[in-house]
Amino acid sequence: MTLIDPRSRYPRPPFKTQPQEFPGVSAKMTPEPDYGEDSYKGNGRLAGLVALITGGDSGIGRAVAVAFAKEGADIALSYLEAEETDAKAIASTIEKIGRKCLLLPGDIREKAQCEHLVSYTLDQLGGLDILVNNAAFQHPREDFLEISDEEWRRHFDTNIHAMFYLTKAALPHLKPGASIINTSSVNTRTPMPILIPYSMTKAAIANFTVGLAGSLVEKGVRVNAVLPGPIWTPFIATGMPPEQHESFGSQAPMGRPGQPAELAGAYVYLADPNNTYTNGALLPVHGAMPQL
After folding, report:
1. In terms of pTM, does the model score above 0.85?
2. Which of 10, 198, 269, 277 is catalytic?
3. Is there a catalytic annotation at residue 198?
4. pLDDT mean values, one per 10 residues, the chain (292 residues)
5. Which CATH number fits domain 38-285: 3.30.1330.20, 3.40.50.720, 1.10.530.10, 3.40.640.10?
6. Residues near 272 by Cβ (< 8 Å), separated by ≥ 6?
7. Alpha-carbon torsion 119, 125, 39, 5, what sign?
8. I want to staple 58 with a disulfide (CB 3.0 to 4.6 A). Which of 66, 86, 120, 178 is the partner?
């Protein structure tokens, strides 16, 4: 094993300004995010398990899908139809790893779609052991009065209500030892003024995680969350003001944004059936950023 200096492992700002329309495509980012296709090394910790990951076509979800596959899991990927290019690319990667990948396009704001994701995963992959509630919507607004009612609802429909629908649909099929992992954010503790609705939903996710963990102890199902800091994903191109692209990640003591592949190990740890006492945890991965 060779040690790696975390400060210089990945690109540092300044970056190019690179706005995209939501939901964004990885191939249009400069530099392209590292999803772990080459950098993540698996050890069979999830061998034979089935994972359903929302927002699995790009960003953090894509890196989690790669890592889970390299650890031996079959993957069901939920994504918006506009992200078909990214979804097919990651499906090809997972199949080359030697695992199954089920593609599930659709909008999880709809309760029926969430129920379909669970039922179709069970039908096609034979079970469900890990649910990763990762998909999210984010839109910056300098002026609070510019936030429309529709935009406000979209944050909560995507980030909160879908998580509720999916968890409720999945729970009857999760056996003792199964795991639910939610993607929250460091914005839970240090909300950004330009991301008020997004930060609110991420705080709700953290609260949901801890409460649900206590509720499901008697069922033997663990519930945890990862709190990412500034991570280089298409979310930056679609959900941050263009003038902030150039310096993105410079606020972290590490002096750079994290790459999706650098978070994957946190999700693997939380999904690993051996980590039975890790329950109700909120795990920050943020490059040494101070937290309240």
Report:
1. yes
2. 198
3. yes
4. 91 93 87 94 96 96 98 97 93 97 97 98 98 95 96 98 98 98 94 95 98 98 97 88 91 94 97 98 92 66
5. 3.40.50.720
6. 45, 46
7. positive
8. 86
